[in-house]
């Protein structure tokens, strides 16, 4: 069972910061999941929301901010706001950190609401530069983006993210066909949509199923019975214990 620290060890530490990533080490887990977007001046940065303000003391969007502007921002959290590890990181910083660990990095391209020109090529170039093609999985809710990835680089593994909205709009057969067309290795469904049929049909087509975001022990126990291949969780240490006790 592949366990990923979702946005880092984000149940206890500020999501998508180097601090949360460092706190994901030594937990005996498989990997870390991050969200990637691009700044106005073309820098790949790690942040979940398309806009600022939920976590950091800034306004506006990632797309319309320069990297320098983003780097000046501090967390709103009074206790953590001056911590060096709690700035918005670049993808490059995260790759540098992951490179010498046993962890796999799931890079989620956050391009389902905002489009970032050439973000797929930019990500692949930097992953290649770090010689980490076999250490990353690239995922997206935007299947066109996954198709681009597979055309640009057939070595890098990809995953199609399936949330409740996609599941409502397209039936399972169509979703699995998209995975095939995009040459995905994985399908990443939300825990709200995954069920026995979903896992069985995906497995039948050779797809590995990794479920997001699993923060409940009860749900985790159900997923173990469904024989899913991995999960994303904000509580990697707790979920890892459940997995070790129930497999
Ligand atoms: O990659 C899994 C999960 O992170 C997708 O949803 O909104 O948490 O990025 P979200
Ligand atoms: Mg994500």
What does this structure look like?
- This protein has 247 residues and is an alpha/beta fold.
- The protein has ten helices and nine strands.
- It has an eight-stranded parallel β-barrel with strand order 1-2-4-5-6-7-8-9, surrounded by six helices.
- Helix 5 (143-152) links the parallel strand 5 and strand 6.
- Helix 9 (217-226) crosses helix 10.
- Magnesium ion binds next to strand 2.
Detail the topology: elements first, then pairings.
Blueprint: E1 2-6, H1 18-22, E2 31-38, E3 44-46, H2 67-72, H3 91-99, E4 104-109, H4 119-129, E5 136-140, H5 143-152, E6 157-162, H6 164-169, H7 172-181, E7 186-189, H8 196-204, E8 208-211, H9 217-226, E9 230-233, H10 236-246
Parallel strand pairs: 1-2, 1-9, 2-4, 4-5, 5-6, 6-7, 7-8, 8-9
Antiparallel strand pairs: 2-3
The chain binds SN-glycerol-3-phosphate and magnesium ion.
What attributes characterize this protein structure?
247 residues, 10 helices, binds SN-glycerol-3-phosphate, binds magnesium ion
Strand content: 15-25%
Task: List SSEs in N-to-C order.
Answer: EHEEHHEHEHEHHEHEHEH
The major pleated sheet works out as: 8 strands, parallel, barrel
Using only C-alpha atoms, the radius of gyration works out to 17 Å
- Give the helix level as a range of percent: 25-40%
Query: How would you write the strand order of the largest sheet?
Result: 1-2-4-5-6-7-8-9
Ligand identities: SN-glycerol-3-phosphate, magnesium ion
Mean pLDDT score: 97
């Amino acid at each position: 069972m592949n366990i990923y620290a979702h946005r880092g060890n984000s149940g206890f530490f500020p999501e998508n910061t180097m601090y949360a990533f460092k706190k994901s080490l030594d937990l005996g887990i498989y990997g870390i999941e991050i969200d990637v977007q691009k700044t106005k001046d073309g820098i790949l940065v790690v942040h979940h929301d398309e806009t600022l303000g939920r976590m950091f003391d800034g306004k506006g969007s990632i797309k319309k901010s320069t990297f320098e502007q983003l780097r000046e921002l501090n967390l709103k959290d009074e206790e953590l706001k001056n911590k060096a590890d709690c700035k918005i990181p670049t993808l490059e910083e995260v790759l540098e950190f992951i490179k010498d660990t046993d962890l796999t990095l799931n890079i989620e391209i956050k391009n389902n609401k905002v489009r970032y020109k050439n973000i797929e090529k930019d990500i692949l170039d930097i992953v290649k530069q770090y010689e980490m093609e076999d250490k990353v999985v690239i995922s997206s809710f935007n299947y066109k983006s996954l198709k681009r990835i597979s055309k640009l680089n057939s070595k890098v593994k990809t995953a199609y993210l399936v949330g409740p909205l996609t599941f409502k709009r397209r039936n399972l057969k169509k979703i699995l066909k998209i995975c095939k067309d995009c040459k995905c290795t994985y399908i990443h469904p939300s825990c709200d949509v995954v069920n026995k049929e979903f896992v069985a049909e995906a497995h039948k087509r050779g797809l590995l199923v990794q479920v997001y975001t699993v923060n409940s022990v009860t749900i985790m126990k159900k997923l173990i019975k469904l024989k899913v291949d991995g999960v994303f969780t904000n509580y990697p240490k707790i979920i890892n214990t459940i997995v070790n006790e129930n497999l």
